[in-house]
Amino acid sequence: MKIFKSADLIRKSKYISRDLSWLRFNYRVLDQARDTSRSLFDRLKFMAITSSNLDEFFMIRVGSLYNYIDYGKERVDYSGLREMPFRRKLLDFAHRFINDQSMTYLNDLKPQFEKNGFNVLSLAELTEVELKKADGYFKNTVFPLLTPMVYDSYHGFPMMMNQMLIFGVVTRTGSGDIEMEKGQERLTFVQIPQNLSRFFELTRRDKVLFVPIEEIVRANLPKLFRNVEILSADLFRITRNGDFTLEESDDIDANFIKEIQVGLKTRKKGRVVRLEVEPNASDFLMQVLRERWNIDNGNVFVISSLLDMKGLFQILKHPNFRGKGFKQPASVPPLSLPETVEENLFDYLKHQDVLLHHPYNSIDPVVRLLEQAAEDPHVLGIKQTIYRLADDSRVTAALLKAAENGKHVSVLFEVKARFDEERNIREGARLEKAGCFVIYGVSKFKTHTKMLMIIRREGEKVTRYVHLGTGNYNEQTSRVYTDVSLLTTDEVYGHDVSEFFNVITGHSQPDEYEYLITAPKDMRQQLVCLIREEVKNAKKGLPSGIVMKMNSLEDKEMIDEFYKASKAGVPIRFIVRGICCLRPGRAGLSDNIEVRSIVGDYLEHARMFYFHQAGKPKLYAGSADMMVRSFERRLEALFLIVNPQLKREAINILYYNLQDNQNTYVMREDGAYVRRTPVEGEAVSDLHKEFYSRNLVVMPQEALYDDWLSVANIQASSKDANGQPKEAVIVITPEMLPPVPGEVEMESERAQREIPMSAGSDYDAQEEADLA
Question: Which among 56, 52, 53, 445 is positioned nearest to 267, based on CA atoms?
Fold first, then answer.
């Protein structure tokens, strides 16, 4: 059998395609929807997430690819493919995923609806009484909102809204049509407004019925086309390119915000990159849409199940089913912050640093500190970066109160936070009106770092209270995202953060920081130096090792450094939730590298970087992933954890990430993933449960400090040369981690090879010609 050059290039490349890696990540999310050990409502949640993820993927990643294609720009993917053959490979994979997604919904989930107290029904399955209620809903609510828009030689092609359900209705004119000849076909579009619920809800005895809105509209289309023959009515949905490029100027005030707002509008009318449509759609309709939007069969996805599965969230929010999914335990106190410290966090933080591990520890101490600062007469000022906020944010409320109380408040709102731009502009305007000093972005860089500084007068001196984290100041996402953050009054952190704020808000270029590594200054270079130190130690026969946890690993320069370290014998373990462009376990290239991904009840969001340093480990945490954009186009910061107890807590976090065998997928050399399960005799380890039971009493007795004698040797003695207690040191050896047992190939990984592609995926040997 002939092997296409594209497959050969992909196999030989030492890098994994970023976009193909992302689709594999969404397969891991889909695998959660197929997990029969979960409740149906949990599985529906993950199914809806895969749909939401895919919408963003097409808007941003596929949209970005089309920016190159449409404007004739060259692009070579990490896999080695040029833009056109890569487009075919990517859309091929997307077709396979969407087919798998549909089959999961139809075969695995929908049959479970009835016995769980609800069902999704068509109009044909409703009783006469229920049909009357549906008709009443259409007449009173839906009908007044519908606006048929005809397209013919007299009427221009109407604007189709992004990700809206739309009917393409083909009609045949009668003798009374004054504009068209009798018998001629016409095409009309009916868009279903997005402020209508995805489903119409009914109750049948003890069950809730959900009727898709398109069922009701379809049945009532004759009321919109009176005395006209309807030949076909097909539901479709489009996704437009949402990856717009901003040409930013040095003047980044009102003009800059206007550019953002213009960019937001382009999302509504950008080029179409995906067309989802019901099976057996009208040939006339499809020909018009293909020609109008310059798309081919690769962009057309025939959906045999439910268009826009994000609507499944409506089922989960129904009062009858709230609380039937994952039951999140109550948060536990941070190991370094007693529950008794409620009234005055300022007094406690003067003497003790605190490490928070969200969502196991609530974000409440950070928000309370900010609220106390707003009211405290000794607080002089507050400086903060904001990337994403919660609805009805307590953070914004506290900053407004601080400004009202006459404190100096400086806030950097990142208005380029994707899909939160409008909210951040609105919240920034509120703060400005209250008297806050608001900065909307910094030149060409996106401010992604998470930091807060409170300046407080205490007697004759001023103390800086600093918060540094890996996650956003968002009370909502902090309950489902895993992150770490640090509260401290250490003067070194205070000085470093002050310097960094001067970089953000002014024109300053400090020579160096003591506890921070920042981008775009020199983060990549400093991380490379730390990796090379591990290489030197390995070559000297000293213990070495690297453990990193992040969202994405994509930067080629860093990947090449990791390959060099692997060849030198440095054991490297990555925990990468999403995109990973590094190829692990390739002989002679990355033999000593292992990559894991954790996907489960919480979204793994923390970034933590451990370097063994020959027995004196350094551990950084912060906002940056290993991505080009993080190093070159964002303001990012990693902070060194220096407090011995907090460092031990952070190492403990990494350890349990590596021990997990309930939410972990292990990456193979070919880029596919296998799910890890416990082998016989191995204890079940679920990190999303373990952290609710960690405490200082048991932590020193955990496996981290016992079993790692063969995994990470513990070298500790009671006193050092000066007679002082010596900190326990974790020494990582090449056998740092046990082999990954119980690897089970994901069913969805097999499915992507076995399930036939949807109609229209007719890619063939033409890719040979495009490789040149």
Answer: 56
Query: What is the SS3 string spanning 139-173?
Result: HHHHHHHCCCEEEECCECCCCCCCCCCEEEEEEEC
Could you give the CA distance from residue 445 to residue 422 in angstroms, rounded to a whole number? 18
Asked if 685 and 659 count as a contact pair (C-beta separation under 8 A), the reply is: yes
Q: Exactly one of 448, 467, 612, 688 is catalytic; name it.
A: 448
Peptide bond into 329 cis (omega under 30): no
- Annotated ligand binding at 53? The verdict is yes
Which segments of 676-745 does DSSP mark as H helices, in order? Answer: 687-690
Phi first, then psi, for residue 622 (nearest 5°) are 170, -160
Q: Which residue has the tokens 């089913």?
A: 321
Within 10 A of 153 (CB to CB), how many other CB atoms are there?
7
Q: Is the pLDDT of residue 424 over 80?
A: no
586 is in an annotated binding site: no
186 is in an annotated binding site: no
408 classed as catalytic? no
CB 539 within 8 A of CB 568: yes
292 is in an annotated binding site: no
Give the tens place of pLDDT for each residue, 160-192: 999 999 999 999 876 555 555 656 889 999 999
Q: What is the pLDDT of residues 476-520, one digit of tens each?
A: 999 999 999 999 999 999 999 999 998 887 776 777 899 999 998
Would you state the structure tokens that stand for residue 149, as one six-digit string?
Answer: 């828009």
Domains of the chain: 16-246+263-317 (3.30.1840.10), 345-513 (3.30.870.10), 517-709 (3.30.870.10)
Encoded tokens for 410: 């400086």
**Residue 481 annotated as lining a ligand binding site:** yes
Q: What pTM was estimated for this model as a whole? A: 0.87
Token look-up 């999961």 returns 104
